[in-house]
Amino acid sequence: MRKDIKIALVGNPNTGKSTLFNLLTGLNQKIGNFPGITVDKKVGYCKLPDGKHAEVVDLPGTYSLYPKSRDESIVFQVLADKNNSSHPDVVVLVADVTNLRRNLLLYSQVADLKIPVVLALNMADMAKKQGVEVDVDKLSERLGVQIVSISARSNSGLDQLKEAINNTTKIATQTEGTDIYTLAPEAIEKAKSVVKTDNNYFALQVLHQYETLDCFSKADKLLLAEIGKEHDFDSSKLQAAETVARYRFLGSILSGIVQDTGAARKFNFSDKIDKVLTNRIWGFVIFLGILFFIFNAIFSWSAYPMELIENSFTWLTEYGHAHLPEGILTNLLLDGVVAGLGGVVIFIPQIAILFAFISILEDTGYMARVTFMMDKIMRKFGLSGKSVVPMISSLACAVPSIMSARNIESWKDRIITIMVAPLVSCSARLPVYTLLIGLVVPEKMIWGFINLQGLTLMGMYVVSIVAAILVALVMSFLIKAKEKSYFIMEMPVYQMPRWNNVLFTMYEKSKTFVVEAGKVIIAISIILWVMASYGPSDRFEQIDKKYAAIEAQKDSVQISTLERDKSAEKLKNSYAGILGHAIEPAIKPLGFDWKIGIALITSFAAREAFVGTMATIYSVEGGDENVTSIRDKMREAKFADTGLPVFTFATSFSLMLFYAFAMQCMSTVAVVYRETKSWRWPGIQLVYMTALAYFASLIAYQLLK
């Protein structure tokens, strides 16, 4: 896409930066990685009033240019390196106007790098309600930058912001924050000659961070290290001195600028609510109540759209078999691709509902309270409060939750969090749970308002969280480290959810689920259909001869029954059947047959593949005439040797526990390797999770059968 100007969005966490990014770019955005590292890179495009096309990069939130995590280190790397593909022409610094002094610390650092800046004072509507008034014109004059009051939540001030970006010159106009040159004059002068700059603050930052900056050669880094030793460059002390100097400077800048007439009542409303929602007893009761409501809604609200999708795919399969010419391609399309894809698409309503609730909880500020409440509990099990965020994120997907563990400074806490995060039930397990729960748990209400199926689903999520915490406790004794961890987080005030953002999240996550899972499942469905439709030629020839001889002696009604028997026997002797039977002795004690065994293997690519695999296997086995839904086929499935149903209460719960604890996700294995830079940790993770899944399933089946 054509781009005339690059814009970087910079700001503290929880300032509405990402909301502004979504407003500026809409659906015209993509997510990748910054070059050479695994930190997410959100890039979007927008058109400015003068017709220019702008590329907008949403940089990770940070309180300072001095990073405390890998994500935060990206900000200075992008701003420092002019050859970086994301290096901006203009920085839009998003500041929370209700907490201006703290937010302007980062602004003053960015301004001293002499990149043109536009200051966006966000949450203007909230400031007005809280009695915070800012003299924007006077502040703009003192700082020497364009300042725009905006409210990303209510979509106000966006046009003025775009106009300000248009009016930004290539030469930075902002006044210098404070005289940092006096902090280490000799070291700064020598560093300027090494890094070839005339900017004092840039040279100082490089002296602090050169070890993590890829834009300098090894020779330059050695020279910078020598400069540091020669002049006793104490990074920690100098950072502290700079911060004090900047706050002193900002005190003079903000004098007479900010009037806070509502200071006494600013957080009064949030504090009153927090007395209940973060209470030691009622806080957890309310949280459990919210979980009850969410999982109840996942089943109750999605019932009709899921039935509609299921009936649509059944009709499509019937219509296809009736009107398309018989042959391999038709069978591949309908019994392979359509059956597999239908098993995924049917769960879109439940995925959308789950992510809608997660988005609402985050938007209102409640998720931060959950993190706060869980901190003391997590510490008892060897984790810090910072581990809560990745573990809660795992309810959506383990991959981004593992990546978010970078913000945990303690190596031990970070490793333990990475090791247990995949145990928390993610959205990929949701299709497996709901399919199996729908088979064996009756659809009835308890006390007139609690859905029994929803209660069972919540139970599976609780089991996974308890397992993750217990495994973390064990690992806290096995993994040794001397460092201590601290949990510091900012409590946002309560706000109404941004419904546009909720809808956008539902759309994005549902699309990602279908596209990402769909690609894997279509590929698996095609391979599986081929493996289930073909086998060693001698076996298939014997089956054909056997049934040809029987058909000659039977009437038409019996022949239709023979067709199903013939399809079932061919499936058993197909390549998929041979593979399934090979592993059946190992999984039979868990209550699984060879067909479930095939699904366990294909699910390693993606857990959602279980549903598509079962749909494909039973479609191949049923033949062209037996077109029913996947649920009905699984409900009718029986063991060949005993004639008893396969999916009993015991087998279904054994299978759900297996999926609750088993790794079964190639993407998670890959990201754990990428984050730990070693195959040791994903190897240990794969072994312990598989063992845990096997023995949990074994115990459950043997007790329940």
Question: Radius of gyration, rounded?
Answer: 30 Å
Structural class: alpha/beta
Largest sheet composition: 7 strands, mixed
Strand order of the largest sheet: 2-3-4-1-5-6-8
Shape: elongated
Distance separating the two termini:
60 Å
Average pLDDT confidence is 78
The percentage helix is 55-70%
| Number of DSSP E strands | 11
Strand content: 5-15%
Helical segment count: 31
Which runs of at least 5 residues are low in confidence (pLDDT < 50)? 33-38
Concise structural overview:
This protein has 705 residues and is of the alpha/beta class. Helix content is 61%, strand content 8%.
What would you note in describing this structure?
- Helices cover 61% and strands 8% of the residues.
- It is α/β, with parallel strands linked by helices and 705 residues long.
- Among the domains are: 5-166, P-loop containing nucleotide triphosphate hydrolases (Rossmann fold, 3-Layer(aba) Sandwich); 180-242, no CATH class; 324-340 and 501-704, no CATH class.
- The strands form three sheets. A seven-stranded mixed beta sheet has the order 2-3-4-1-5-6-8, with helices on both faces. A two-stranded antiparallel sheet has the order 7-9.
- Strand 10 and strand 11 (450-451) form a beta hairpin.
- Helix 30 (666-676) runs antiparallel to helix 31 (680-704).
